[in-house]
Amino acid sequence: MAKMNPEKSNKDAGVIIPSAGTGVRMGGGTPKQFLEINGMPLLAHTIRRILKISCLRKVVIPSSPDLSERTRDIAHEGLESSGLSGSVDIAVVAGGDERMDSVRNGLHALKDDDITMILVHDAVRPCFPLDAVEQAIDEARTSGAAIIAVPARDTVKMVDGNNVITSTPDRERVWLAQTPQVFRKELFVRAYDKLGDKAYLATDDASVVEQAGYPVRVVHGTHDNIKVTYRPDLQFAGIWLKANGEA
Ligand SMILES: Nc1ccn([C@@H]2O[C@H](COP(=O)(O)OP(=O)(O)OP(=O)(O)O)[C@@H](O)[C@H]2O)c(=O)n1
Ligand SMILES: C[C@](O)(CO)[C@H](O)COP(=O)(O)O
């Protein structure tokens, strides 16, 4: 029987970092994950912080094929600077048309790996809270699925096609989904299998699991954990990363 590398033996998680978007809302031609913040691509910041999660064994990055080499270079630089070359594997795979297609491809690359937990984290969320992620991993180990989210700060309105308010949901029960989102591998695979070819567009990973009928818990995140979407978000992320010792 093949001997397990001792540096990997206590690591049982894989992370999918979907990075195949084109950044339409950011504009400007360069996909936002390659824009520089404090002298480093946004994707590099996200990877370096993700590598601080102690149970990670494998990082899978869905990327558009023309940018896969650049993506691989950024990922390997991150791995080397974190001193984890011997204990974490990296794979870059093809992304898909929608975020959920990219995640599906990432999941395919992890299917046969000897891991029990899967995290999914946007390439463009570099300011996530590590302690909350560890809590979400613990929660998902026990209950199957947990995501980082924050309660709504503002009053929420449901609005019809004519911009008329139709209802005001109870704010106490409205949470905004972020990433990382964490799942037991066998449950996440089953949820995607259950979807099959159904035409269903999930804008996050928990939705796929909810559709399959499994409960997903929320763990309190932070409002700082923004998804870099518009130009000013780059500035916020730059300040946050400096203030938190991340270059
Ligand atoms: N087909 C897609 C679309 C998105 N993503 C990734 O999913 C994350 C969140 O998506 P979003 O912020 O919407 O990124 P973009 O799709 O690039 O942005 P936009 O919607 O403005 O075009 C990003 O890391 C993005 O690269 C992906 O891997 N594959
Ligand atoms: C997964 C996500 O980041 C959770 O908030 C979000 O749903 C992604 O949405 P987008 O349409 O790809 O920006």
TrEMBL record:
Keywords assigned: Isoprene biosynthesis, Nucleotidyltransferase, Transferase
Molecular-function annotations in GO: 2-C-methyl-D-erythritol 4-phosphate cytidylyltransferase activity
PROSITE patterns linked: ISPD
EC number: 2.7.7.60
Catalytic activity: 2-C-methyl-D-erythritol 4-phosphate + CTP + H(+) = 4-CDP-2-C-methyl-D-erythritol + diphosphate
Record pathway: Isoprenoid biosynthesis; isopentenyl diphosphate biosynthesis via DXP pathway; isopentenyl diphosphate from 1-deoxy-D-xylulose 5-phosphate: step 2/6
Site (Transition state stabilizer): 25, 32
Gene3D superfamilies in the record: Spore Coat Polysaccharide Biosynthesis Protein SpsA, Chain A
GO biological process, one term: isopentenyl diphosphate biosynthetic process, methylerythritol 4-phosphate pathway
Source superkingdom: Bacteria
Site (Positions MEP for the nucleophilic attack): 171, 227
Function: Catalyzes the formation of 4-diphosphocytidyl-2-C-methyl-D-erythritol from CTP and 2-C-methyl-D-erythritol 4-phosphate (MEP).
Family: Belongs to the IspD/TarI cytidylyltransferase family. IspD subfamily.
Matches recorded under NCBIfam families: ispD
Protein's recorded name: 2-C-methyl-D-erythritol 4-phosphate cytidylyltransferase
Annotated source species: Natronogracilivirga saccharolytica
